[in-house]
Design a protein that fits this description.
The structure is a homodimer. By secondary structure, chain A is of the alpha/beta class. The interface between A and B is large, with 62 and 62 residues.
Chain lengths: 360, 360
């Protein structure tokens, strides 16, 4: 990917932050009216109607084409994993990147099922070489241990944000109109918890969950790591989302921040997945508050901190299937609902066209 | 459809009631084990894993083919609609039957989106003739007003149950492995409320909702109609589901009871939709309790009585999208989740096959 000097990085990211295309409230309202004329009691398709209106507003198009979906699965290792905060060893990150690219992971299967294009990007795994089909953008093997050091330099965060922006551009060039944020990284639910606590003000105890399935001791280690990470932050850092991302974020999370920002700049819906992808969205929305309007929350994870992050975003997820996998799996499961919502808008008859009597 | 004499009807329905194929607990348990070997933390796909295991158990097949979906949309008019219990005039039933068959209704659009086969059956609308593409099985135009008379004779209920069984057979012959219960009928949320109250023991106030959108006066009329209907029932009727169906049911509901019973007899999953289709399932499960194991609850309707009916069935729905439309629309929206669950089971790599390290 791109090779820019630090000054260029800063100015390119500044440009990205100023480029948001706010969804059209007028399109949204017209779609709501159009849906009320369809042959059904007003509002009887519930959240599907909201979804059609929201998506149309993001697209600035009263009669959008059926969506085409893309997924960026960004992966990296995390220094904090050395504190045994996961039920799996760090090598699983690289192994799963290869599995995703080879088509055997949950997200591979679900993406095939819904016809979504997948880009797998290695933003910093610890493996020697990457598997075929993986986009390798690594400058370092894993982030720093956020409980005692910065995850990455601000320069690296900026670079990875622009990598993410380029990946979004690539999917949009391929016709994608809605892009899901997927991730893989042993240790990253600890990082998501730290970011969620820092941005929402919630206590470490409230944002830390069992992730891949740690036991009580693992849970205590996660809580301690988050507490230490938060303890290192100065107020100025908490109020500077880029500095915060560099300090207590993750390499794959930086990529996803860039994906979300560029999607929002290009009338492209951003589909959240679980806790980690939503933590990336928190950073992106802290940078550009109205980006919130371009997000579609796909599901509520079993991770308790995810609900806190969603609430901070004022996002009400479509699904609640007790998932806790990540990779973009929940977002892929929500894609058919978005397609269905758009088809309802495009294809349903009106009371007038179908000759159906209206209600009292 | 078939023309049988009353004795034949009784013996054919008796045979149907004895024909249930119970789902295989062994297949279910083997699928749960197979899912634990896939490259994901155990249980991390949450309800999707339950769904794969449940569907495989119903099919008696540890590695089922991706499901093929059918939908029976049964429609009829209701005498109780003369009490102004709906926001729409009764003529809308016939108009919507035509709209569904012509492809303009919500269920038409959603069925196309998921590739489901739809059978539209007129079990008793008030219209003179039916639209092209509609299966006409009418012997009467609308049911009796349940607040003061039986909805239909027991003989008519038996006949319509066998009509439903034949429709299920037709879909199964076409390859369907999961059949959704859809319906249309102005006034039928009042009938669903009466059935739900009679079978669950809930009070009329708890099972009556706004349906298509009645105002407070309409709600009071619905509650009164349900109270009157329940007041007509003898204890013996409440304990005889066929008599109950004839007394306070609906013509389209009788068809759906037959669809569910035959599907359960043929290793075919039964997808519930909203309140009315679930009321049909209550009757079917009252007749054959283990049929409950063949049901998949697709969504939780905004109608308050639906939650009572689901609880009686011990069914936890997949979606909660604030729908209140019927037609099978919520079931169609849940179909991609079932497909996804089966593909996960079929296509995901195992830790061993993908060379991924297992957890601690």
């Amino acid at each position: 990917m791109s090779c820019r000097d630090p000054t260029d990085l800063t100015s390119e990211v500044s440009e990205l932050l100023g480029a948001l295309r706010r969804p059209s409230a007028m399109v949204r309202s017209r779609v709501e009216q159009a849906l009320d004329a369809k042959t059904k009691p007003p509002g009887s398709l519930g959240r599907l109607e909201e979804l059609a209106a929201r998506y149309a507003g993001i697209r600035h198009d009263e009669l959008p084409e059926p969506p085409r979906f893309g997924i960026v699965v960004a992966a990296a290792d995390h220094g904090v994993a050395r504190r045994s905060v996961s039920a799996y060893p760090a090598e699983v990150t690289s192994q799963m990147i290869a599995n995703i690219a080879a088509g055997g992971a949950a997200i591979s299967v679900l993406a095939r099922e819904v016809g979504a294009r997948v880009l797998v990007v290695d933003a910093g795994s610890g493996s020697g070489e990457v598997a075929p089909g993986v986009i390798d953008v690594r400058r370092r093997r894993g982030s720093g241990d956020i409980s005692r050091e910065p995850a990455m330099s601000v320069e690296e965060a900026l670079r990875l944000i622009l990598v993410g922006a380029d990946l979004a551009d690539r999917l949009i060039a391929d016709g994608c109109t809605a892009i899901a944020l997927g991730e893989m990284g042993i240790g990253n639910s600890t990082v998501a918890a730290a970011l969620t606590a820092a941005l929402s003000g919630a206590e470490p105890g409230a944002v830390v969950g069992r992730g891949t399935g740690v036991d009580d001791d693992g849970l205590a280690r996660k809580r301690e790591a988050v507490t230490l990470a938060l303890g290192r932050l100065e107020d100025a850092t908490i109020n500077d989302p880029l500095a915060l991302l560099a300090e207590i974020g993750g390499l794959e999370i930086a990529v996803l921040v860039g994906v979300a920002l560029r999607a929002g700049a290009r009338r492209t819906a951003v589909l959240l997945d679980g806790y980690i992808s939503t933590a990336a969205a928190l950073v992106a929305v802290a940078l550009v508050p109205d980006l919130r309007l371009c997000l579609i929350a796909s599901h509520r994870s079993r991770e308790p901190g995810h609900s806190i992050a969603l609430q901070w975003l004022q996002a009400d997820p479509l699904l609640d299937l007790q998932l806790r996998l990540g990779e973009g799996s929940g977002a892929a499961l929500a894609m058919p609902l978005i397609s269905a919502a758009v088809r309802i808008l495009r294809e349903m008859a009106t009371f007038e066209s179908a000759g159906v009597s209206t209600g009292s």
